[in-house]
Amino acid sequence: MNLSVITTQFWSLAFQGLALGLIYSLVSLGYTMVYGVLRLINFANSEVFMLGTFAVLYIEINILGHPVTAKPLGGFHLVYTLVIALVGSMIACAVIAVLVELVAYRRLRARGASRLASLISAIGVSIFLMESMRMVTASRPQTAPRLLEKWTFGEVAGVNFRIDTVMAIIAPIIIFVILDQFVTRSRLGKAIRAVSMSEDNSKLMGININRVISLTFLIGGLTTGAAAFLYTTVYENTVFNVGFNMGIAAFTAAVLGGIGNLRGAFFGGLALGMMEQFASAVLGSQWKAVTVFVVLVLILLFKPNGLFGEAVQQTRT
Amino acid sequence: MSALKNFNLRDKGAEIWAGWNRLTRTVFVSVFVLLIALLPFAPNWGPTSFLNTPITSFQNVLVYPMGMFVLMALGLNIVVGKSGLLDLGYIAFFAIGAYSQAILSTLFGWNTWEILPVGILLAMASGVLLGLPALRLRGDYLAIITLGFGEIVRIVALNITVTGGPNGIAGIPNPPTLFGFQFNLMYPEHFFWLVLVMIMLVIWMVRRFTVRRPGRAWEAIRQDEDVAALMGVNTLVYKLWSFVIGAAVGGFAGVIYASKVMVISPDMFKFDVSILVLACVVFGGIGNIWGVALGATLLAYLPERIRFISDARQVIFGLVLILMMNLRPDGLLPRKKREKIQEKRTM
After folding, report:
1. What percent of chain A has pLDDT over 70?
2. Candidate from A113, A252, A287 with C-beta closest to B144
3. Which of A238, B30, B239, B291 could cross-link to B284 by cystine, CB 3.0-4.6 Å?
4. With the CA atoms of B269, B275, B280 and B285 taken in that order, what torsion angle do they form, in degrees rounded to the nearest 10?
5. What is the pTM of this model?
6. Chain B residues with CB-CB distance to A116 below 8 A
7. A190 Cβ contact partners less than 8 Å away, ≥ 6 residues apart
């Protein structure tokens, strides 16, 4: 128990929590989008994230030819390397997410199977992906090359504005704003909302359900891919089971904000990141998961639909 | 083709069962139980020697994972299958049972039979503690809360001194001799028979519950909670009961498990095991105790049988799950047709 850190390092902890929380919220968008249309916890999303981190490594090391020992890049070269890695990881994750839907969900959905059956088949996909990667990497953690030199913009009130942390804060906000606008304004976004309100009725309105569901998985994959890129850039390593904790955290974040609700996932992720940072500073990092879950139970007791409710996509029983 | 599609093994089985008189039923059940009780000797007999598991001892595999998984799957089936509550942290109750055996026996010198009721009570109490706040929530929120509870139990065991931290607790004594059966390393088959008796007790209990008031209440809650509440079922109380009885079975299994393996550590109670038990339930046929028992037997046995391909076995396990769920979404032995419901959802 170390309460003094709250006063001495408040802004620094809050800033770190913000960066971590925004990465969480990107992954939790993958859960919340799918939950919105299918009412299913997409258990395989954590492995999509895991494959995304490996895709970033593969692109940086094998395709662009920067070995782990490479020196940090500068100028235009740095920008295009990062952009290629980001776009590559987003595309890879989107493709994997759509494939997961085809393999694990589509056939079961066509047969009208129970939700638990889909859950187990998603868990099967998740085990398959994780164990395959364990075999490929021989269980060893992989280090990412440090392409982005970690210089800092300066320190204000004990907060170290390091370039990668700043990037991990700005990029998710941009992605979130684009996604929010897409879902609320565009035709396809309208279709997604329609399906999440009532599948039967949207079918009657001429919406191609399967295409909308694929699209939802695609969007979830894109945001998860962006999260994977930011994660590898900030933490510079990955391992075959990196998705597990990330998946639990992201799902908790989605529930905290109100699952099925885009803005809820965003703020839920933020709140979770902050809570984890403060809890590890005050109680020690081994208790952070316990604190998070206790807070989650308390919040759900008083607000059973999460902090922001399920208002954006209408609640159903 | 349509005749085959409408065929339901569970319905057929129930039909045959109903046609038998008491004597035939007794003979059938005794022969069946006897055959299973002879399983520990299967590897020594020619025609059944293919059952033997390479690398690990078959008699031990019969107790853990197979017997324990059947027990846990039957317990989880009360929660998930009978009353339709998704519990992703079932392993917590198993861990509580195992740790109460470990702590009470090493610190206070109690024996397993004395600890058994205490372990069950502790698991039930933790079920109430978790259930009271969690069961007021809707399905998917319940899932995340139970998942969190499972992790909390493991993290607490990892970080406090009385549970030995990451090293766990070693030197847990075996159960004392009962009715002339010795329980130690030399006689793994005695443990198997003990677990078999426990499994039969649990099956008997579940069957009694199913045909009585709680069973009907669970069935109503599973089919439609709002309607059940309208018809005067006190949903919270019955959901809590199913949760607590499931927890009791988990604690029961945990106590015996700890006294069998003699060393426990927090690593054994990870989230993966909860998921695996849930997979057993759904794979075998959710809500049908025979399906659940079969599913748990197969899923616990398979990784041990193919252990010789060490690394790839989990990959194959994942593939089997995907394939099976795609081919038979209702599990190997689905529940009775009239118990099936159209789920309230729009996908």
Report:
1. 97
2. A252
3. B291
4. 140
5. 0.83
6. 80, 86, 278, 282, 286
7. none
Question: Are the CB atoms for B58 and B187 separated by under 8 Å?
Answer: no
Confidence of residue B310 (pLDDT cuts 50, 70, 90): low
For position B324, what pLDDT does the model report?
Answer: 81
The Cα–Cα gap between A107 and B329 comes to 10
Tell me which H or E stretch contains A74.
none
Distance separating alpha carbons of residues A212 and A189, to the nearest angstrom: 9
* Structure-token match 């007790």, residue found: B201
Q: What angle do CA B50, B55, B60 make, to 5 degrees?
A: 80
Residues from chain B that touch A132, judged by Cβ atoms under 8 A, are 315
Taken in order of first residue, the domains within chain A and their CATH numbers are 4-302 (1.10.3470)
Tokens of B215: 């069973």
Give the type of residue at A250: A
Say yes or no for a CB contact (<8 Å) between B321 and A289. Answer: no
Residue B3 binned pLDDT confidence (cut-offs 50, 70, 90): low
| pLDDT higher than threshold 60 for residue A66 | yes
User: If you count residue pairs, one on A and one on B, with CB atoms under 8 Å apart, how many are there?
Assistant: 140
Name the nearest CA neighbour of A52 among A113, A149, A111, A129.
Answer: A129
Residues 159-188 of B with CB under 8 A from A: 159
Three-state DSSP class for A159?
Answer: strand
Residue B329 to residue A108, Cβ atoms within 8 A: yes
Give the pLDDT confidence of A156-187 residue by residue, as tens digits.
Answer: 777 777 888 888 889 999 999 999 898 888 98
pLDDT at A312 over 50: no
Q: Are strands A159-162 and A152-156 parallel, antiparallel or unpaired?
A: antiparallel
Distance, CA of A108 to CA of A113 (rounded, Å): 5
- In this prediction the ipTM stands at 0.81
